[in-house]
Design brief:
- This protein has 831 residues and is α/β, with parallel strands linked by helices.
- It is 31% helix and 21% strand.
- The chain has 23 helices and 31 strands.
- The strands form 6 sheets. Strands 8, 9, 10, 11, 12, 13, 14, 15, 16, 17, 18 and 19 form a 12-stranded mixed beta sheet that branches.
- Helix 22 links the parallel strand 30 and strand 31.
- It is globular and about 90 Å long.
């Protein structure tokens, strides 16, 4: 018996006995299309002198091979052990059959199988071979912005249907030239059946346009007033010049447009913020190489590997104190979100071109200089705040003209918009040992989507529509949960259309017709309305899922916990609709897929002004002061803010006091996210926010790492009959206000708050374990983006003997709850 294994660890074995001459049929499922699997099979068959064929089908790759026993044994082993770098084998089946006496081995046309489906490869960053050819003057694709092969390039963003063949991609309008066709048809070539293959003679091209809105505008940039008409290298050179002079350029990429500017130019970054209506939210950065990144950031080995990985995500890194990057890139933060170039066009943007001698429309004098882009570029999403990124050229001309000075365009269509993914490295603290590192995907999109999450069961077809903020949806079939790319906040028509189109695309690709739809309980979420409206039209059963239960279930699924598992779920976030109609967000659940028991929650506090209190943390500070019996002293920061900055401040305070007493437009909330807001405002850090979790993020940045004391919470004991108990933060608020009055430093107060919160979580988990006997803790919800809180909590829970589950491949925020919704729906719906 020859021993082999599937990707999940299960054994792949050869049947016995093996005759001297025989034939074998093989079916391989997983990510095996668009990754060079057929040429790999062909070359393995030729190496082993086998006859037969290989083809794509709607369900994967099919192989028929015949030869001697030793040849087949070697071939079967090589198919798994030497598979292409981008291939993922989920299932490997083979059985022996009659020989057919075939001569030679060939790749035959793909086969469509009704109802069959397969996973699809995400987009992949440029490989080393293509990068070398990109800068080889003797190569036909020298400086070609769309160079690719079977080991790299676009996949998910260009695919329109399966099987993954060129006619089913957005490359179907580009007819290959003789050179490309020869490579495409040569099984020995790296570009054999590379569907996006092209060259300057037959493929897409790039060009530069000057934005009409900003021609002649008196701005920080020095770009003149004349329309630019440049293509190929000239377009890239002119883009470099524009960026170096402080211009903002809209650059069409792999999954949509970026807005780019020089990250070392204060004026350019400020102008971009003003145009994009993005006041403080951090911008992502692109740097040409690791040397540049390490000039500006502290990078460990795990982060370095992530930056250089084929996914090329944005990685959250610690900023060096001597970095010259503009402070307006990430105001009030000690971290930067950084990525390396991942497309040929990106590398060309950073390339140093030889001397240019041409009449430039940007300057009346001749330009003779060595050109290259600034060493660090802001590369933020090409959109107005909260709208989907632009993907089409005309759409960009219309929507981005007021934001950019010029457009670097191309004509390869983008079928599905895809944002950059965001990840970080979490060092799991281990007593007396070197820390173990966990990579956490905070935004799962380009490079990762639509790679599926493997389920611990085979599911019926389910659609889970996710949440309102950071929306993703999830389609489930068999053992796969296809979590979508990042959609965004469903707060406008454009994003809702992207959500609906994404669902249609996934259903088509993966041949899924939902038999059940899961949705969030919040009645006003557009995703929930979509679910109920569609279910009514198509007569599909629905299940409403509580928000925080879905958070915990998503973490359970990611760790492949079986259907009868039970965990202590600590779900902390800003907003989630509770089954009692209140706004939950500080929840301690004893959770199973089938249901949950709420043991603890942060005590309810009014949210004065409703959603307005989310944007104005001073309101939550005054609410907690009122709850704690603390007078609204004008010396305290939130009160002083109202008196100094609001119209009719006394009337405003009177109105807010009335709201707190009567509950008028002040729904009760147990949100830990809102407690973060209140503490940030009380310390004087942030009274109003302009992006989600800003107050909490800036509060975390101030932590004094030397401070070991903690603020107290009041945690009631659990008896044999009690449950759904309130955790009171009044002792914390009183201690914090006393510290502020005593002149305690903000960093010390921030540290005491974070440590106090971690201590409270620990005490609650110990109490629930004592009552239930459950020793597994799952941490989920957007609050767990807070690295300090996660580190403190993980350490003390682990020291107490808990098994602690945190997110890795599924975002801990609302971008991951669709997976949990689907898991709960399946376990409730099926017997």
């Amino acid at each position: 018996m020859v021993g082999m294994h599937n990707s999940d660890g299960s054994s792949i074995g050869l049947q016995q006995p093996l005759p001297d001459k025989f034939a074998v049929k093989i079916r391989i499922n997983g990510i095996v299309q668009g990754v060079g699997f057929r040429p790999f099979v062909y070359n393995m068959a030729m190496r082993n002198s086998l006859s037969g064929w290989v083809r794509n089908s709607s369900s994967g790759v099919d192989i028929f091979a015949e030869g001697s026993r030793s040849q087949i044994e070697s071939f079967l082993l090589q198919l798994v052990s030497e598979k292409p770098p981008l291939a993922v084998v989920d299932d490997f089946q083979h059985f022996f059959t009659q020989t057919q006496g075939l001569n030679g081995f060939e790749i035959i046309p793909s086969k469509e199988i009704s109802g069959a489906f397969q996973p699809i490869s995400p987009d992949v960053s440029i490989c080393p071979d293509c990068l070398r050819e990109l800068f080889d003057p003797n190569d036909i694709r020298f400086h070609y912005s769309f160079i690719n092969c079977t080991n790299c390039g676009p996949r998910f963003t260009i695919i329109q249907g399966i099987p993954y063949d060129r006619p089913n991609t957005t490359m179907n309008s580009f007819t290959m030239c003789a050179d490309c066709a020869s490579q495409y048809g040569d099984p020995q070539d790296r570009r054999f059946h590379a569907q996006p293959v092209a060259c300057p003679k037959c493929g897409p091209n790039v060009w530069l346009e000057l934005g009409q809105e900003n021609q002649g505008k008196n701005s920080h940039s020095q770009i003149g007033q004349t329309q630019i008409d440049a293509q190929g290298d000239s377009a890239i050179k002119m883009t470099q010049l524009l960026l170096s002079k402080g211009a903002i350029v809209a650059i069409k990429g792999l999954g949509g447009f970026h807005l780019a500017c020089d990250a070392l130019n204060d004026g350019a970054v400020i102008q971009l913020r003003q145009r994009k209506l993005r006041v403080d939210k951090p911008f992502a950065l692109m740097m040409p190489d690791m040397q540049t990144i390490e000039q500006h950031c502290i990078v460990n080995d795990e982060e370095r590997a992530l930056l250089k990985s084929r996914e090329r995500p944005i990685v959250i890194l610690q900023r060096r104190t001597d970095s010259k990057i503009c402070e307006f890139v990430a105001p009030n933060q000690h971290t930067l979100g950084v990525m390396l170039p991942y497309t040929p066009l990106h590398y060309l943007l950073f390339a140093e071109f030889d001397e240019v001698d041409r009449e430039s429309s940007l300057n009346s004098n001749k330009l003779r200089a060595k050109l290259s882009s600034p060493s660090v570029l802001v590369m933020t999403s090409g959109n107005l705040s909260e709208e989907p990124i632009a993907t089409e050229n005309n759409e960009a001309r219309e929507k981005l003209d007021s934001l950019s000075d010029a457009f670097l365009m191309h004509n390869r269509p983008i079928h599905i918009r895809t944002d950059d993914s965001v990840v970080r490295v979490f060092p799991n603290p281990l007593e007396g040992e070197k820390p173990q590192f966990t990579v956490q995907q905070l935004r799962r999109s380009r490079g990762y989507a639509p790679y599926p999450i493997r389920l611990p069961w085979n599911s019926i077809p389910i659609l889970a529509t996710g949440a309102e903020l950071k929306n993703t949806f999830c389609l489930v079939r068999d053992q796969y949960a296809f979590l979508s790319h990042h959609i965004g906040d469903l707060e406008n028509y454009e994003t809702l259309c992207a959500f609906e189109n994404g669902i249609k695309h996934f259903e088509k690709l993966f041949k899924i017709k939902p038999e059940l739809i899961a949705y969030d309980l919040h009645p006003d979420y557009l995703a929930s309305r979509y679910a109920l409206d569609r279910a009514d039209r198509e007569k599909i059963p629905t299940i409403g899922i509580q928000h925080h239960h879905a958070h915990i279930a998503a973490c359970m699924v990611e760790h492949r916990l079986p259907f009868d598992s039970e965990v202590i779920g600590v779900a902390l976030d800003g907003t989630g609709y509770g089954e009692d109609g209140a706004i939950w967000g500080g929840e301690f659940l004893l959770a199973r897929y089938q249901g949950y028991q709420r043991f603890y929650h942060l005590s309810y506090t009014p949210l004065p002004g409703g959603d307005l209190a989310i944007r104005e943390p001073w309101r939550m500070a005054l609410a907690w002061m009122d709850k704690s019996g603390i007078s609204w002293d004008p010396k305290l920061p939130p009160v002083r803010h109202v008196l100094d900055n609001k119209k009719n401040p006394e009337q405003l305070l009177t109105t807010l006091s009335h709201q707190l007493k009567t509950g008028l437009n002040s729904p009760p909330t147990s949100s830990i996210g809102r407690l973060f807001d209140a503490v940030s405002a009380l310390i004087g850090i942030r009274q109003e926010v302009n992006y989600e979790a800003q107050a909490a993020i800036e509060l975390e940045q101030l932590i004094d790492p030397q401070e070991k004391e903690s603020y107290p919470f009041d945690l009631p004991e659990i008896d044999q009959t009690s449950g759904d108990l309130s955790i009171d933060a009044v002792p914390l608020v009183k201690s914090l206000v006393n510290d502020y009055a005593a002149g305690t430093k903000p960093g010390v107060m921030s540290a005491r708050f974070h440590r106090g919160l971690a201590d409270m979580i620990y005490q609650a988990c110990v109490a629930i374990r004592k009552r239930s006997g459950v020793n597994i803790v799952a941490l989920s919800g957007g609050v767990w983006h807070n690295l300090a809180l996660l580190s403190y909590t993980y350490q003390i829970l682990q020291d107490e003997g808990f098994t602690v589950l945190i997110h890795r491949h599924v975002p801990p925020n609302d971008g991951g709850i669709a997976v949990g919704q689907a898991a709960i729906a399946y376990n409730r719906f099926t017997p």
